[in-house]
Amino acid sequence: MAKSSRDAEREGLLYVANLMCVAARTAPKARGMDNIVSVVLTDKEKESLAQKMEEFGKSTERPPAFVRDANNVRQADAVVLIGTKIGPVGLNCSFCGFENCQKCEEALARCAHNSGDLGIAVGSAVSVASNHRVDNRVMYSVGWTSVQGKILGEEVKIALGIPLSASGKNIFFDRK
Predict the structure, then answer these.
(1) CATH number for 157
(2) What is the DSSP string of 45-70?
(3) In sequence order, which residues have a C-beta less than 8 Å from that of residue 39 and are 6 or more positions away?
(4) Does residue 170 fall inside a structural domain?
(5) Can you give the pTM of this predicted structure?
(6) Is residue 100 one of the residues assigned to a domain?
(7) Contact between 96 and 111 (Cβ < 8 Å)
(8) 123 lies in which domain range?
């Protein structure tokens, strides 16, 4: 059997995408509370995301980055989405700006630890991609669109997207 380079690269990239989800899941979290959700998009789902990004970018006062980033999503072989559910972790630390977790929750504010946990999970995931030499870029526009489209579910309120590519030239480098 012979496997083309392109087929082998795509299989390898999808394997790495799966490992990125593992890294996000096992990343350290405040009080060990796991609010992280991840998904890998390819093919039709990836194109649907790119279309929504373009629509959001053109129909709202969103920065032009949404349209630019939609093109990167189309060029990418896969997109890893990592998001977090929102909820106080019970430390009463006041990082959110409120006196305690109860006040934070009453104000419908976001626990600072949720965002921190998301950052650590995304950092762990992109380190896996980098260690396997898969080109990637963390994009808020991809995450924002996935939250608006409820791709990660109703409970996920903050997300980041990571398009992945294996090509001769990094598609995320010369962006306009």
Answers:
(1) 3.40.109.10
(2) HHHHHHHHHHHHHHHSS--THHHHHH
(3) 21, 80, 81, 151, 152
(4) no
(5) 0.94
(6) yes
(7) yes
(8) 5-165
